[in-house]
Write a structure and sequence with these properties.
Blueprint: H1 4-18, E1 21-22, H2 23-34, H3 42-54, E2 58-62, E3 79-83, H4 85-95, H5 105-113, H6 120-148, H7 154-184, H8 201-206
């Protein structure tokens, strides 16, 4: 994945893998998935949907065969989108990838949201890559803090400390998830046959003691 459009495409394909949806429902689900700080407008969603349709990855159809009551009012008819066979294959290829971009902040969030559709070995590679990336970041921030401590005011130092704590907390969380994946990658499943869910943040923190 190369940028924000790739993240949006993955999010759309992953959600449609779960169930067909019309644009309004997709927008609500995407806002929940991507977070309110990346809330989507229809201006970004529909061009992406159009591009996916043109590439044959999804198909749209009218929600009903008869005109809705508001048909004469000029309102947009609801189009329900679903994955095509090519779309399912394309999504599977994306979810099987685990390169460096999958460890980055924006990409990791979306990939993690679809871990239930991702095989155990790929999940583990992404989690380990993310941990490595954050560990490197943590060391760089610590070194910078030592070099600049004498020149920073108390508020900047507090912000720096807060940032360090956030990264340290995520590394502990990743440690717990990695331990969980290593224990379940050989086929351990929950009651409905899907991969067992991740440990909680509290579980991850407890595992450090």
């Amino acid at each position: 994945m190369r940028g924000r459009s790739d993240v949006l495409e993955l999010a759309i394909l992953g959600l449609l893998q779960e169930t067909p949806m019309h644009g309004y429902e997709l927008r609500k689900r995407l806002n929940l998935l991507l977070g309110s700080f990346r809330a989507l407008s229809y201006g970004s969603l529909y061009p992406c949907l159009k591009g996916l349709v043109e590439r044959g990855l999804i198909v749209g159809s009218d929600a009903s065969q008869t005109p809705p009551p508001h048909a004469l009012s000029g309102k947009r008819a609801r189009i329900v989108y679903e994955l095509t066979a090519d779309g399912k294959e394309h999504l599977a290829q994306i979810l099987a990838s685990s390169g460096p971009t999958t460890w980055e902040d924006e990409h990791f969030d979306v990939r993690f949201a679809f871990f239930a559709q991702t095989d155990a070995e790929t999940r583990l590679r992404i989690l380990e890559g993310r941990r490595t990336r954050l560990t490197e970041r943590l060391e760089n921030v610590r070194q910078s803090a030592v070099r600049t401590r004498e020149r920073l005011d108390e508020y900047t130092l507090e912000l720096q400390r807060h940032g360090l704590e956030q990264v340290e907390r995520e590394v502990r969380w990743l440690d717990g998830l990695i331990d969980n994946e290593r224990g379940t990658r050989r086929g351990t499943t929950d009651g409905d046959g899907r991969p067992a869910g991740p440990t909680t943040a509290d579980d991850a923190a407890a595992s450090q003691h």
